[in-house]
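Hello everyone,

My group is preparing for a crystallization screen and wants a predicted model to guide construct design. The compound we'll soak is zinc ion. Before spending weeks at the bench, it would help to have a computed complex in hand. I've included the protein sequence and the ligand's SMILES below. Output in structure-token form would be ideal because that's what our pipeline reads.
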Amino acid sequence: MIFDPLYLIVLAVGGLLSFWASARTKGAFAKYSKFTTRAGFTGAEVAQHILNDNGISDVTIEPVPGKLTDHYDPRTRTLRLSEPVFGGRSMSAFGVAAHEVGHAIQHATGYSMLKFRSAWVPVANFGSGLSIFIIIAAAMMGGVSTAMGANLAWLGIALFSTTTIFTLVTLPVEFDASRRALLALEAGRYVDGEELDGARKVLNAAAMTYVAAFVTSLLTLLYWAMRLGLLGGRDD
Ligand SMILES: [Zn+2]
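Reply:
Good plan to model first. Here are the tokens for the complex, ready for your pipeline.
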């Protein structure tokens, strides 16, 4: 089962997609880090301005070590910006800072997809932890060739699909945060047209990492569904 060539292909495709998306994000970030914005703000300052523009006063901005470690923590309402973004003045810094504020705005306005995604985290954690054991048990029972195997196969696939659903609902949340970021940068006149374009390119590249995660999860799900006999006609 481990040496199934199809499984190796699924792993390779997923790995390559993730590598490509991550390399593209790092490349775009590095490229547009070289272009300093004319507004004279740092990423942290532009983030604070956009929070103010949206009437959000209960979010704290703090620096976090590392590269591309930027995130918004809804539990503590903290916007953590990596050092090159926090103190940076580039198109990359502005794009990423504004994107994280986009998540804070989603949180403040009760954006439904963000709510669903947050509520789904424990479900996905539970599902992903358990699914592999159930899938292996189902495979050992011959998948759908036995009644017990078939039941376990469906259960394993249902559990695994919780992570695929998580990577799927992440997509609208991330695309929406970037959309809000670019609108806010433009509306507040924090960037000119050229700077906005640079910020957009960084955010578009970053969005591909989430698409890659979804595609990888979906391919793995389909592989297991097929392997267990729930999809297609593999009868080995
Ligand atoms: Zn995001």
